[in-house]
Amino acid sequence: MEIREINDKKVWNEFLLSQNPNTFLQSWEWKMVQEKDGEDTKTLGFYKQDSLIAVALLITVHAKRGVHYLCPHGPIVKDASDFSEVVKELSAYCIEHRAESNAVALRIAALVENTPENCGVFSRLRFKPSPMHVHAELTWVLDISKTEDEILSGMRKTTRHAIAKAQKEEVRVDISSNSDALERFWPLYEQTKNRHGFIPFSKAVIASQVNIFRASNMMFFAIASYKGEDVAGAICFQFGTTVFYYHGASKKISSNIPAAQLLQWEAIREAKKRGATMYNFWGIAKDDEPNHPFAGITVFKKGFGGYAIDYMHAQDLPLSWKYWVLWAIEMFRKKKRGF
Q: Which of 10, 26, 204, 270 suits 120 as a labelling partner, its CA being 20 to 30 A distant?
């Protein structure tokens, strides 16, 4: 197997689009977002007999707690039987090049299901479970290839009624790919951050995501308003036939108006218009974690119908003794955050 850097966006994205499932976190656009944010990236292609069999977007994360390589939702492998060998080659590549960036670890947040076989691939290569998750691991997805009536009938009864009530109360949902919509979304995002206490993306980072994906017609805003006041918002990214509900925001309103349910329904309808067949609601909590910060939003997301996919927890390959400094800091943050 040979590793070569790929410098052609068309070659890169076409390979990703030919694989299932789709993920925007390995896309050329996500590479551009990371570079805009000041990180270094490598777009690595894995070849057998001159045939491209896998790709891996490798990001050098310059965190204060420790510089490390990150492969989000990758590597993406054409044939599952090659996955183990690709991870092994990627690990060897990072060991060989670690001095270039003083990276203390390789962190892989792979888009593979959490099975004993997949866990074994990493344990045999001396990976360790990462102290913290990188992206949503237990994910809720909805098949939207069906008709709108079929999707509605698959929802929880209370969710259908909430959508109908919001429509009756004349909640308005604007769908837009105009970057100016960020100015409507941002105040809602700040209120959500203050209410739930999560660590937010900066406005500059979200603006970069919006502008880069918008240039490829791969994103849209959904903003819900009630009586002329914005009350909920979403930023959705599309890659191939999947639309991802990636950023969400809302504000508390005194009236019992279910604007968020109508917001999601209109986002799903927009995803269908764009040719998507899958809507990814992103992360949820496990059923046995009622105190998890995602517990409330989990009930909300499941109301639309769909099913869960349990992806593997992020795995770390230490490249230096300094990895344990990163590990200790992240373990402290995990305990403080509660998950």
A: 26
SS3 253: coil
Distance CA 196, CA 24 (A): 26
Which among 89, 57, 86, 107 is positioned nearest to 317, based on CA atoms?
107
| Cβ contacts of 285 within 8 Å, gap of 6 or more | 138, 292, 293, 294, 295, 298
Q: Is 10 exposed, middle or buried (0-12, 13-18, 19+ CB in 10 A)?
A: exposed
Mind listing the pLDDT tens digit for each residue in 136-162? 889 999 999 999 999 999 999 999 999
Residue whose pair of structure tokens reads 């002329």 in the numeric block: 228
pLDDT confidence of 286, banded at 50, 70, 90? Answer: confident
CA distance 256 to 134: 34
* pLDDT at site 287: 80
Report how far residue 51's alpha carbon sits from residue 28's, in angstroms, rounded to the nearest whole number: 20
- Work out whether strand 66-72 and strand 105-109 pair parallel, antiparallel, or are unpaired: parallel
Please tell me the distance from the alpha carbon of residue 94 to that of residue 317, in angstroms, as a whole number.
Answer: 10
Q: For residue range 118-138, list pLDDT tens digits in order.
A: 999 999 999 999 998 888 889
- In tens, the pLDDT along 13-50 reads 999 999 998 999 999 999 999 999 999 999 999 999 99
Using an 8 Å Cβ cutoff, are 318 and 94 in contact? no
The dihedral of CA 204, 40, 5, 74: what is its sign? negative
Q: Report the C-alpha gap between 331 and 175 in whole angstroms.
A: 40
The token pair at 58 is 């490798």
Up-side HSE of residue 149: CA atoms within 13 Å toward CB? Answer: 0
Q: Is the peptide bond before 21 cis (omega within 30 degrees of 0)?
A: yes
- In this structure, the number of other CB atoms found within 10 A of the CB of residue 338 comes to 9
Pairing of strands 40-48, 51-63: antiparallel
Cβ atoms of residues 309 and 143 within 8 Å: no
Average pLDDT, the chain: 93
DSSP string for 228-246: TEEEEEEEEEEETTEEEEE
Cα 213 from Cα 27, distance rounded (Å): 10
